[in-house]
Amino acid sequence: MRSSPGNMERIVFCLIVIFSGTLAHKSSSQGQDRFMIRMRQLIDIVDQLRNYVNDLDTEFLPAPQDVKRHCERSAFSCFQEAQLKSVNASDNAKLINMRIKQLKRKLPPTNTGKKQKRGLTCPACNSYEKKPPKEFLERLKSLLQKMIHQHLS
């Protein structure tokens, strides 16, 4: 059987459509993966900082708890704005400061983040109860786990 120019064009067209569909699927799922990867990194960073809690400044920090639905990102930004810092004399100060800097990186966008209601008001950062660094980190980890759970459901 000979292939005619018309058949060859159809085959090439079909291959292009299939390839384009594959790329579109990959790019749409890639954003979701970026969010989950970032969340897992953040939990690891919090766990690492908890190992150095004795090397952290003892200043009490606003630590959101029982965050209302759709206020998770706002609460997360409160954790990011808090002045968590290492004790300057610590041998681990460089590592701790690097981890704190990593906590302050922006979260990737998500579909749920785009769907948040515009008129919803979330509590201001200074309205949250201040806690010592150990409890601050525990509450941050809890919020991250909540955000992961909501993202997956």
Please give the structural blueprint.
Blueprint: H1 5-51, E1 61-62, H2 72-81, H3 93-103, H4 111-114, E2 130-131, H5 133-152
Helix pairs in contact: 1-3, 1-5, 2-5
How would you characterize the overall build of this protein?
With 153 residues, the protein is an all-alpha fold. Helix 1 (5-51) packs across helix 3 and helix 1 (5-51) runs antiparallel to helix 5 (133-152). The protein has a two-stranded antiparallel ribbon. The protein has helices at 5-51, 72-81, 93-103, 111-114, 133-152, and strands spanning 61-62, 130-131. It is built from 5 helices and 2 strands.
Query: What is the CA-based Rg, rounded?
Result: 23 Å
What is the β-strand count?
Answer: 2
SS class: mainly alpha
The run of helices and strands is: HEHHHEH
Name the strands of the widest sheet in spatial order: 1-2
The proportion of residues in beta strands is under 5%
What ranges have pLDDT less than 50 throughout 5 or more consecutive residues? Answer: none
Count of DSSP helices? 5
Task: Give the termini separation.
Answer: 52 Å
Q: Tell me, rounded to a whole number, the average pLDDT.
A: 84
**Helix fraction bin:** 55-70%
Largest sheet: 2 strands, antiparallel
What is the 3D shape? elongated
Task: Offer a few descriptive terms.
153 residues, elongated, two-stranded antiparallel ribbon, mainly alpha, 60% helix
